[in-house]
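Design a sequence for this backbone.
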């Protein structure tokens, strides 16, 4: 990316303080604990990604993988308000998609508060589809909207070519 643009990398344990601060600043309730963040930072499959701008953590994402599951889930994603509108959320979503594909997942899912218009706009712009909701999902009773993005392309009927027609057997005339 251009100088000053977001760069995504796997998070390391040294990022724990910055990620915890970002999580707590972004979510007054329903947040991932410092203890859980530490656990995820040391997990063998490296599910925590950070976006940096000029070597400062501008955002992070935590991707959950259920053993044997077909989808990966964005468990938490947050962007520091100082870096809003600089493409941090978009590059984190792209990195989550790449992570999910690398782990053989066919889809990426997430939940978002019904009133988080900026996040909803980002997800819809990034081709996530609304597929449901959870009422009373958050500690304050707010509803969560459920979004999903298919990662395995489904062929469109028009991309399959013309319908297959069996060839008619040609009769040979015998002489």
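Sequence:
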């Amino acid at each position: 990316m251009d100088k000053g643009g977001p760069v995504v990398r796997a998070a390391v344990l040294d990022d724990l303080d910055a990620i915890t601060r970002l999580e707590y600043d972004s979510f007054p309730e329903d947040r991932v604990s410092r203890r859980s963040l530490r656990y995820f930072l040391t997990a063998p499959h490296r599910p925590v990604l950070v976006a940096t701008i000029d070597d400062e953590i501008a955002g992070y994402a935590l991707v959950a993988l259920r053993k044997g599951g077909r989808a990966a889930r964005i468990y938490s994603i947050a962007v520091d308000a100082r870096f809003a509108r600089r493409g941090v959320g978009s590059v984190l979503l792209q990195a989550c998609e790449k992570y999910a594909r690398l782990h053989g997942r066919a889809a990426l899912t997430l939940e978002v508060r019904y009133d988080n218009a900026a996040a909803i706009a980002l997800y819809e712009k990034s081709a996530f589809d609304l597929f449901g909701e959870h009422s009373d999902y958050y500690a304050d009773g707010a509803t969560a909207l459920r979004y999903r993005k298919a990662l395995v392309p489904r062929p469109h009927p028009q991309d399959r070519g013309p319908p297959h027609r069996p060839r008619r057997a040609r009769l040979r005339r015998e002489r």
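The chain has four helices and seven strands.
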